[in-house]
Amino acid sequence: HPSSQDPSLCSGTDLLLASVLTGCVDYVSTQGLVLGVYESEREDDSLHLTESAAGVDRVLSGKLTELLKISGPGLKKGKSRIFYGLHEDFPCIAVVGLGRNSLGVCGTEYWDTCKENIRAAIAGGCRVLQNHVLTHIEVDGCNDSQSAAEGAVLGLFTYDDLKTKKKTRVTTQLHGSGCVSGWEKGVLYGEGQNLARYLMEAPANHVTPSVFADTITNRLAPYADHVTVHKRYRGWIEEQQMGAFLSVSKGSEEPPVFLELHYNGCPDNAQCPLLLVGKGITFDSGGISLKPPSGMDAMRADMGGAATVCSAIVTAAALNLPINIIGLAPLCENMPSGKANKPGDVVTAKNGKTIQVDNTDAEGRLILADALCYAHSFNPRAIVNAATLTGAMDVALGSAATGVFTNSDWLWEQLHKASVVTGDRVWRMPLFQHYTRQVTDCQLADLNNVGKYSRSGGACTAAAFLREFVTAPHWAHLDIAGVMTNKDEVPYLKKGMSGRPTRTLVEFAAGLANQA
């Protein structure tokens, strides 16, 4: 090959061959490097490397720029090129396209486009290097090291605990002189969402209510000086008169657990500005109103609300956020048996309201009703609950955004502001009395657990049902059913359970902490 005498003239496989011939590559090395390049603003623009990429280019006497120019057209957003043997410390370098540098918050997309582009590009570059069996990757901060870290950590996540053949385990670190504190924060944000993904992805026989509670307890153990964990069992639940919660759990052989977390980031302040509640159905068969078998395996993630809420508190503790947070997670299975709820049964919630259970597959709102009643005993400034509650939300918004139903404009603004930063978006949905009347017009009890027009406005009637157990002036219900899984919609998340919107909950809590 005529170019084998000068590795700067070749790229990809040709460059690997040239590197072998000239002895420039060390196959024993397991280190890789991800660098960013911006898309040209105009057709006549030259390459626009990030600060870290430009530094590497200087060390290589301009060879990186030269290779990028001769190896094809300018790198578009999300695309990558791999170069071999250029750098003695990094035998494999991935250069990724970051899109245009001039972009920011988009008024139609409701996110920061630059941040999203960085997350996607870095995730893609890290995956490529992981496929090259590299075990350590240094990552360009791309002038936003938090987003770069989130992309790296989220992009490399794989749940393969139960497989014999596992993906290469990769460690990452910031390359160069970027913002170390931003990188560390991004790593914690990403690891928090990955914890939720891990819990949601695991089979239901491996993450039962008790295993879920133990997992979160263990993850909070390093922060025992400012975190208190209470695992409440059936006797306590009965004492609290949580009849709705108990009615769902009685169909399963697995005992229910009511997990209560107290994160005291402000030990001198006894007030609780934020209370998070998560639906914890560790498997949802639909009960007597049995779901169709197709896709039922995904119902191992019906505890996504509890997973995201608890993971957000773990992350808040790791970040040492100066805020007090209480987390509540009613955990149980919804199974068919001779003891399970039957359509038409009437149960009594903690606040004394009676509920006609016309659909046993609408069980999430039953366990949340009791948890929301209990939440008010702490007199929090704001209550936010998260739940994979309705298929109707998936129909309405798909995976684009979490649906938010709230009685508070202030609370909506805080959640929306946080979601713009994280790119894990939220969208406000209606809490009209129109929907309330559809759950209070009930033949046998105070409330029906489904709207009288069945599927019409199903996500809205579910929210209206929950509102009947809320008296707090600042409450928000997050229906995360549509964002529960990822196929290819979010490029920095692989196919599977998404763990959304954990980062938005963390950013929201951080925003409240800054207001204190």
UniProtKB/TrEMBL annotation:
Its EC number is 3.4.11.1, 3.4.11.5, 3.4.13.23. Its cofactor is Zn(2+); Mn(2+). It catalyses: an S-substituted L-cysteinylglycine + H2O = an S-substituted L-cysteine + glycine; Release of N-terminal proline from a peptide; Release of an N-terminal amino acid, Xaa-|-Yaa-, in which Xaa is preferably Leu, but may be other amino acids including Pro although not Arg or Lys, and Yaa may be Pro. Amino acid amides and methyl esters are also readily hydrolyzed, but rates on arylamides are exceedingly low; S-benzyl-L-cysteinylglycine + H2O = S-benzyl-L-cysteine + glycine. SUPFAM superfamilies: Macro domain-like (SSF52949), Zn-dependent exopeptidases (SSF53187). GO terms for molecular function: manganese ion binding; metalloaminopeptidase activity. It is found in: Cytoplasm. PROSITE patterns: CYTOSOL_AP. Residues 359-366 form the Cytosol aminopeptidase domain. One of its GO terms (biological process) is proteolysis. GO terms for cellular component: cytoplasm. Gene3D superfamilies: Leucine Aminopeptidase, subunit E, domain 1, Zn peptidases. It holds the Pfam family Peptidase_M17_N. Keywords: Aminopeptidase, Cytoplasm, Hydrolase, Magnesium, Manganese, Metal-binding, Protease, Zinc. Homohexamer. Cytosolic metallopeptidase that catalyzes the removal of unsubstituted N-terminal hydrophobic amino acids from various peptides. The presence of Zn(2+) ions is essential for the peptidase activity, and the association with other cofactors can modulate the substrate spectificity of the enzyme. For instance, in the presence of Mn(2+), it displays a specific Cys-Gly hydrolyzing activity of Cys-Gly-S-conjugates. Involved in the metabolism of glutathione and in the degradation of glutathione S-conjugates, which may play a role in the control of the cell redox status. PANTHER family: CYTOSOL AMINOPEPTIDASE, LEUCINE AMINOPEPTIDASE-RELATED. Belongs to the peptidase M17 family. This is Cytosol aminopeptidase. It comes from Oncorhynchus mykiss.
